[in-house]
Each structure stands twice: as structure tokens, then as C-alpha cells.
Amino acid sequence: MTDCEKCREMISCLLDGELSQAEQSFVREHIAACPECRSVYDAFSAVSAQLHEEEPLPDGLHEKIMSGIKAKPKKKTGIVWIKYLSVAACLALVIFAGVKSGMLSPAEHKTDSNDLYVAKSLPVL
Predict the structure, then answer these.
(1) Region for residue 87 given its phi and psi (left: phi exceeds 0; alpha: psi -120 to 50; beta: otherwise)
(2) Residue 40 predicted with pLDDT over 90
(3) Other CB atoms closer than 10 Å to residue 36's CB: what's the count?
(4) % the chain with pLDDT above 70
(5) Residue 43 · residue 73 · CB < 8 Å
(6) Residues 96, 104: Cα–Cα separation, whole Å
(7) 3-state secondary structure 61-76
(8) For a tag on the chain, would you pick the N or C end, based on fewer CB atoms within 10 A?
(9) In the predicted model, what is the mean pLDDT of the chain?
(10) Which DSSP string corresponds to 51-117?
């Protein structure tokens, strides 16, 4: 990497105050000796100066923003019914799946003959 490439990468950092003393010295010495890098520095410097200029706000803008912040947000009533509908749909799906699988169908009452024999032979207390 040439000195010009190194310098051009560091110009923005120089303008933002992000370089060490040694790096600042390198860039300043290089732009003093190199007209091409000096023109790059001048262009960056002009842009940086424009970015740091403050323009006054239009009249009433601050108040308009603050009134919008202080206003209470509207309640979201349209979304509430979706929650209840989704819960109802889930319950219906669970019931349907239970009926189809036989888990929720009435149990068949089968009597086993061994159960009757055991029940008859036990004493009643």
C-alpha cells in the first residue's frame, strides 16, 4: 500500500479526531507534500464542515413533534377479536382431533365375564 493510499484512508479519521498523534503527523506531513492527497483532504474537509453546520428548525416544528409524542396512543380494538377467534379455533381443532381419534368418544361398556365372577365372589362389607 502506498503512502497516498494510507493517507487517503486516514483523512476522514483525521477530520473526526480519531487518529493518534503519530498518525496525525503522518497525514499532515503527507498532505503538505502531495497535491493530490491535499485536494482529497480539502474535499473531505468541505463536506465535514457542511455536516457540522446547524440550521435552525422551521417555526412550530418542535411543538408539533412534542404534541405528537404527548398524545395518547389509540387503543387497538380491532386486534382483540383476532385473539379470541384464534383461541376458539384452537379449541375447536383440539376437540375435532380428539373426536376423530376416539379419545373423546363415549367409552363402550363391555363387561368381561371374569370381572363378574370376581365381583360375585367378593364379600360385601
Answers:
(1) alpha
(2) yes
(3) 11
(4) 74
(5) no
(6) 9
(7) HHHHHHHHHHCCCCCC
(8) C
(9) 79
(10) HH---PPPTTHHHHHHHHHHSPPPP--TTHHHHHHHHHHHHHHHHHHHHHHTSSSPPP----HHHHH
